[in-house]
Amino acid sequence: MLIQESHQDVSTQAGGEMRMQKATEACVAQNEQLQADGAISKVTGPVARFCRQIASHGFICAAPSSYHEFTGPEPLNYDGPGTDKGNEWKIAKKISAYDEDSTLSIDALLALPTCNGRVGATGMCLGGHLAYRCALDKRISAAVCYFATDIHSHTLGEGKRDDSLERAKDIKGELVMIFGKRDNHVPPEGRDLIRKTLHEAGVTFSFYEVAWAQHAFIRDELSKGRYDPAIAGICFEMLLELFNRTLRSDLGSRVGGGGKVEDIC
Description:
265 residues, 8 strands, 31% helix
């Protein structure tokens, strides 16, 4: 499927204009909408290619640039200085400003004449956490969060004190959480805390931990030697299953599944 790319600049109260990079199929019918959040380096090459891949399946994909308070929309480099700058801004930005970005992005997608009224979210690294926070908005039907950082440690944003886990009960859509077993940014005890909290909050979610995978294993560049294309492809099929079922298919409300499972083989 051929795709088209464009961008939209949206004014924010937090400061600066948030640029949303959009990827759509070339012939647009009534489409499902997705917000794709980037890593700490913003909308980089791997994030842009991820959006194009999603758009090629008939979705409209918008990737907001997170650091508009501090700089322009150009991506940071995947190197030491770029990583340091992204990590600095990640904890300088207010949580309320992150949430404003999400709200404005969802508003913009729902305002499109081709929107079918259902919106999902996805992202990697910092973007995985932002996709999770997107899901705190009841308008998000589903979210896929790749190796979401800082949820377990409550350290996103100014003051390094976010409320993402405390607000888990606000999530009304379905989540997919994906981590690598060798992810040293989110250690085993951190992943256990996230899983336990989601269970206790009654969130509908799937939780995957991939053997041998490290942090950022879907990022399709080799600057840090962690890209695993085979596993990345499998995880993308998980994304498509969730979004095709919850955003594209009009199946109505789920019935059953909440009762006791019959104990038979």
